[in-house]
Amino acid sequence: MARARSRDRHPLLTSRAECPTRFPRSVRRRPTSGPAAVWGASYASDTQFGALLGGAPALRAIAPALTPAMSALDGFRFRGGVPEIGSTLAWTHYAIAPDMIARIGSAHGREAEQKRWEATERTIAGHDAFRAGTPHWGLDVEAIVGWGLDRLREPLGSARHREGKIVDRIDAVDVPVFLIGGWFDVFLGSTLELHRRLVRRAKETGDAAPRLLVGPWTHDNLSGRTAGVDFGPGASADDLGGGDLTTQHIRWFDATLRAGAAQMPAVRVFLMGANRWIELEEFPPTGTRTLELYLNEGGALTTEPAGAGERRLTSDPASAVPTCGGAVLLFGPFEAGPAEQSAIEARQDVLSWRTAQLSGELTVMGAVRAVVHLGTTGTDADVVVRLCDEHPDGSSRVVTDGVQRGSARSVDPVTGAGARRPLEPGRDHEFVVDLWSTAHTFMPGHRVRVDIAPSSSPRWEVGRNAFAPSSEPVDPTAAEYTIRHGAARPSRLVLQLVAPAPR
Asked: Which one, of 364, 367, 361, 351, lies nearest residue 480 by Cα?
């Protein structure tokens, strides 16, 4: 790993955030001359919900962008039961710690904390920060990083993971909400889950439905150009067709605060591949159908399962598969977005399946998930699945991805409810891997490709292939994974399609 720059700060993260928002028990109500609204991204979206639910009588509308406010367990601290170790270190070590250290009044205390910062930096540069079981080993780190690692040690169902999140308080969100997300944002899952729940609540109560805008953006890049791909001039937040993102905010607040004309669709998403914006009444749109693509012999991905078969890979925690693109919040050189995957796919511990070349357009718009039947020689396993677009020249770019830890298969990915259990070695286990959602057109001549790997580091904690009760430290060990497919064990990719694609 290249050494990360010590003073890189995430532009969408406040430098004054010492911990996630906690909803205040009370807020002093002050006279106001009129209604108010708030907007902001990332941590500043958490604070919007904090103000709303803490008691701000003048607040009439909010516009949270790139928000982790829904849950800490769906891309903020965990994904599929796997710690987001890379995001935790990127946020605490690079975005928060330098400012906190600078604010220490005592020169001696400031120097001591700076030395701990430098110790953390050495573990990042030397890869030790990302070895299997990192959150559970003692590291000499600065206070805010220690706080982040402490959170990763908490059980998935811990109340600490709900602090500052609205997973238990959706019914109290009683003002119009304009949600903004990115297809390659680490908090896309939280944004879309929040949208789903607010839409459901609006249908039940008759209140205003939320608005949703999702672009081909990462957490810190709304230009429409990332990971070597340019989605076109209309993909930038500076030019959304009819104005920039600020114009969208003004229209929203004009409608919600001054009863102006909304002039906004219920949903506006960028359709990647076709590279254009589309307007919808809901997401996913009405009329979608489900397509199941089955993993078969010879790396074939087809619409029907074939005869029984299997493929094997070795999961070695000492040689983790590198993170390459996707919806990440990391540090250089780990850029978010539709990164080219050929080097990753060439590894012996990454297995791929692909369709024949498409004769026409195939538009995926909505949820993506994978069902993987897997046996392992260990008592736990991590399954990373990537949906990729393979171009006619053989290059392969990630569209969306996800991970699932075997011991957390029964744990709710949003609330943390449910028990962790070890896997039985040698037995077939069904993994359902949530790849969140996308809007992407696979063009004629392209192929739909799915990659399966045992890890993605530094994004996700490298699994130890051994079950650890109560997240206790255990030594990592190599394990053999056997992925089975066929009619009896139908490993498959499940997509939501629209045909023809909306215009």
From this structure: 351
| 461 touches 360 (CB < 8 A) | no
CA–CA distance, 405 with 417 (Å, rounded to integer) = 15
Q: Print the SS3 string covering 152-163.
A: HHCCCCCHHHHC
- Residue 311's alpha-carbon distances to 204, 317, 371, 457, 489, in angstroms, are 47, 19, 15, 23, 13
Q: What percent of the chain has pLDDT over 90?
A: 80
Rounded Cα–Cα distance for residues 234 and 25 (Å): 43
- Pair 16, 137: CB distance under 8 Å: no
Contact (Cβ atoms closer than 8 angstroms) between residue 372 and residue 491 = yes
Decide: 465 and 380 in contact? Cβ < 8 Å. Answer: yes
**Antiparallel, parallel or unpaired: β 492-498 and 289-295:** antiparallel
250 vs 32, which has greater pLDDT? 250
Q: What percent of the chain has pLDDT over 70?
A: 92
Alpha carbons 124 and 5: distance in angstroms, whole number: 11
| Single-letter amino acid code for the residue at 186 | V
Chain centroid, CA 41 distance in Å: 15
Q: Quick one: CA dihedral 316, 321, 326, 328, positive or negative?
A: positive
φ, ψ dihedrals at 280, nearest 5°: -135, 160
Convert the pLDDT of each residue in 185-242 to its tens digit.
999 999 999 999 999 999 999 988 999 999 999 999 999 999 999 999 899 999 998 7
As separate numbers, helices (DSSP H) first and strands (DSSP E) second, the chain gives 8, 21
Q: What tens digit of pLDDT does each residue of 259-315 get?
A: 765 678 999 999 999 999 999 999 999 999 999 999 999 999 999 999 999 999 999
The pTM of this model reads: 0.92
